[in-house]
Amino acid sequence: MDTQHEGGSKGNPVQITEDEAAVYDRQIRLWGLEAQQRMRNATILVIRLRGTATEAIKNIVLAGIGKLVIFDTEEVSEEDLGAGFFFRDEDVGKKRVDAAKARIEALNPLVSVQAMRHPTLLEPDSLDALVMSVDLVCVTDWDREGLIKINEVCRRFGKPLYAGGTFGLLGYIFCDLLKHDYISPDRSAPKEAPRNVKASSVYSPLHTAVRHRWSGLTKRQTKELNPAVVHVILALWEYQSNHEGKLPDDMDAASELEQIANGILTTSDVNRQVLTSVPRDLIDTICTSAAHEFSPTCAVVGGMLAQDILKALAAREAPITNFFTFDGNTGSGSVCRMNM
Prior knowledge:
Blueprint: H1 18-23, H2 25-31, H3 33-40, E1 43-47, H4 51-63, E2 67-71, H5 80-83, H6 96-107, E3 112-116, H7 124-132, E4 136-140, H8 144-156, E5 161-167, E6 170-176, E7 179-185, E8 196-202, H9 206-209, H10 219-224, H11 227-242, H12 254-267, H13 280-289, H14 295-314, E9 323-327, E10 332-336
Helix pairs in contact: 2-3, 4-14, 11-12
């Protein structure tokens, strides 16, 4: 790999070559050359390679980022073969990053891929150095405390964070883009003279977002945000926190998860005309499925995650603000502004 493909420094960005412009022609027509240039000079860190990350990586690599750093300490298991299409039967027992690296590189030889798997890299000093060396961090299928910790490090060094994952048929994306400036179409401009306007959003960290209060929303607004799914995801994080990172995997957990979810629901002051308690059938379903990956859910959430990362890098259109949830039971998704 040519050294220039490692991504240019901020003071000396790498210019897109004619060959690269030909490869990315369709995207350049969509985003513009300047946006593609930003992607080309971006280094993205992806932590943990499960199904959601697999889908997201595929899309951001094909789109033409400059460098991808993948970090995972675990080995490929038989369960990974379902949703993780970078893995094959013969990879079981190998480190995930080692098994995935060559297949990621094959997607787009223009992108440099670095694999990291040493557990000490997530210790404070090493994590600081790792975050400082990239432009954007993406963490998938992680517990709440771990995400809050990484989010704090990202904030300290001014790096945007995306977090995403699935719990069976449910999925989520959270992003903290700090203060994000972007170009957005002016919807009020006449059709014959469309123009773009500069816009900006100020994001909140995860530890603040999870304390969001739903007060003041109308019945319709509350219903559109699908509060049951949001609160089940928050409850799963709390359950993990209480059980050393483990997710519920049978009906024995149903009563505890229901109690946690309804406690969060009461505290967050959701409109009681819409939801007085989290539906028991949703609790029962998630208790037997949360610990497992389903390819369709990973495809939707990972695809959305990649699309939003690229949108943030390109600084075109508004990214997610700031908590997206997907309900595979109904095939619907919604975006909730959590303490923004």
